[in-house]
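Table S5 (text form). Sequence records supplied for joint modeling of the two-component complex.
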Amino acid sequence: MTELVFKTAAEIADLIASKEISSQEVTKAFYDRAEALNPQTNSYLYQSRENAMAAAVSADKAQAEGKILSILHGVPIAVKDNLTTTDAPTTSGSKILEGWVPQYDATVVKKLRASGLPILGKTNLDEFAMGSSTEYSAFGPSRNPWDLDRIPGGSGGGSSSAVAGHLAPIAIGSDTGGSIRYPAAVTGSVGAKPTYGAVSRYGLIALASSLDQIGPVSNTVLDSALLQDVISGHDPHDSTSLKDSLGSMTDAVKNADVKGLRVGIVKQLSKDGFQPGVKACFDDTIAKLTAQGVEVVEVDCPSFEYAIAAYYLILPAEASSNLAKFDSVRFGLRVAPEGNPTIERVMAATREAGFGPEVKRRIILGTYALSSGYYDAYYGSAQKVRTLIQQDLEKAFSQVDVLLTPTAPTTAFKIGEKVNDPIAMYLNDVATIPANLAGIPGMSVPNGLAQEDGLPSGVQILAPAMQDAQMYRVGAIIEKLYTDEWGSPLIAKAPKLEVK
Amino acid sequence: MSEITPDTVRHLASLARILVTEDEVETLAKELNVIVDAVATVKKAVSGDIKATSHPIPMANVYREDVVEPSLTQAEALSGAPDSADGRFRVAAILDED
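The corresponding structure-token record, covering 598 residues in total, follows.
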């Protein structure tokens, strides 16, 4: 029998349901490993054995009373530290919130608790989810289990490194421009950004409210589907929450059938700018699908050329407004300058001390984009680009069921390589950003190791809004083509982390 | 080249209530010029009559019944406050003395 911590969430859930193991046994196994390996990966900002084991005891007790609370009953999970939790500090990776314990649980956290999933801890992220490497976390970068000198992607690098390193079987992430999908690609794991509104954002510390979406992080497509089914659904606390159910993602994975599938390759995201090994993996995915009889066509999305530019106006504009709440009054850090300062000087000194350089850069950029005289030219034009992207996607999806792109332009880069070059960092999200601007679902599935460095690559699947099931169907098809070839998921090829 | 001068940065930082050192002003001015040049390309993408999209899904106001529901107690609401007194948030003076 494979050691417990190398099993998928689906396998663990089955073992618990059939009473072969208890939630306490599996939670303890993951907690022990996470505690021992976290000094190497820095995946978790906060771990609590007491909280995790108490939840596992409750799950086992419920089961003994005949209550199976969900399809993932008893399976432990890690939660990104930008979701509020009443029993653990919530920092969002920032000094300005260090030590803050929220007064309410995020809806997703509430659902996890009600569904019998013990929370192992809170995972690291770039400060307020601004970044694609976790190097902008105020608490140090997380490290990629494939090579500890490399980034695990961001902003959700804590969750991706925890799952890829088996410090948790599954995790929660949030995706504003690729923060679930990019980390999945560079760690050889799976991550999905559901349709905007499919999962409640209540209790998610907002970065850009019109782009943010919570989603699953896992090692297999089925595990992400199971988790999305647990966390999605309408929430009256979130005015953007979708009223209608999007159906069962689990069923979409289990019934995945290649028959009649039409996929599109985006002209603007299949040529230049990708590392040769990443491009080769992508071409291989397309070849495999073609060999299955899948119809592949090229689609034209000219507006994608402007997606990054539009994103880096809309995001800072929304973030500068969302982060105004960190004002030293009701919660978080307060720094008072010498003498008898006014509240404005206290706010300015607090925000100087509490925010890191990338957060300051984006707040000031957002303030500029929204200032009078520039608003129409910058923010106004960016909103129009958003319309063009939706129109291009609508046209593309009239010809095909899903679009495929490489998820990330390169494999995981070395820690420190891009940290002082904001533009280079922003370009990591070139393929993932359009989905957020349009509100459509997107997921990343491993599709091999790049020939030049042996590091994981991912393929991104984009589906029309509300058609998350279609995305999971194609994710399951691609995953199976590869596991048939490799005999196991890609993650089984990752170096095994040893406790030092 | 866009025109973000050190003075622009000082003004924006003051609007955003972020104290910045002179070193930061210099660095930010340089970085923001590069970033603004890059993002200014959006202007080239849009011509003619294109509507602006602020949200990816159709938005409508959401109302709830106007009934009293349980909420945070005063102590809970103040539990994370850097400073409080008499059941309220306490802050520095709003106005300068002079």
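Note: Residues 320 and 363 of chain A are 4 Å apart (CA to CA).
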